[in-house]
Amino acid sequence: MKIAVIGGDARMLAAAKLFEKNRFECATAALGNTETNIKDALCSAAAAVLPLPCEKGGILNAPRSDAEISIGEVFNAGGENILFIGGGLPKGERFADYSENEEYLQKCANATAEGAVSIALNESQETLCGRNALIIGYGRIGKNLARLLQAFRTKTTVIARKGEQRALAELNGAKAFDFSALARELKKADIVFNTAPQIRFSEKELASVKGNALIIDLASGGGIADEKDIAERNARYIHALALPGKCFPSSAGKYIYETAVAILRERGILQ
Fold first, then answer.
1. Full DSSP string of 250-270
2. Can you list the positions of beta strands (E) in 171-234?
3. Fewer CB within 10 Å: N-end or C-end of the chain?
4. Domains, the chain
5. Per-residue pLDDT tens over the stretch 79-118
């Protein structure tokens, strides 16, 4: 069975290698390595695996390629019979969005948490043991972060909107408060991990950031604060996005490969 792997970064290269290792015929395009063009890569392929996100502003997400290729061109080159597997794809029978696969999301959340803890360790002159960590948000990433930090015996506090999230955080050994306590808890936090999208520090919260604190923002978007505003508090701000691909590309590629194979089986394309 032929699989085309198109666009993306080192994660997609790792996924392509796994397809080859597991006896798929694999063609790559827009990956900056020895490859064919997109039309030839898609020719006679049962499926095409695209990155997450698959496009940015209508352009294929292909940072390793010098060419600017519209995502529509990729879809048109595939014809009607090929299955496109990727992140942020349109709805329809021709498409399968692995960014909606819960198993994939959980694996990436764990990798993101591990990457964030690695940044905290590398950027600090102190151990995590005994320090005060504040996690904003208690979704997939926040839960994994809390688990890892507690293994380091870090004093962990969670800020979460939902009562059930706060209750779960407390059951798992962390302190937990709603967002009304954010300014108060920022005054205590040596390390702040933001996992909540579309959150922005208010002036009160910004003024509460502890001097020498390290703020690691894992949420997409404009960020929880501006780096210069955090620097004025004598603190450090790191907007750390796409950590699975940056920190663990081989593992992240494995997650894409495993999820794509599961989708092929669900669709009856692979037995």
1. HHHHHHHHHHHHHHHHHTTS-
2. 175-177, 191-194, 214-217
3. C
4. 2-98+249-266 (3.40.50.720), 105-240 (3.40.50.720)
5. 788 999 999 999 999 999 999 999 999 999 999 999 999 9
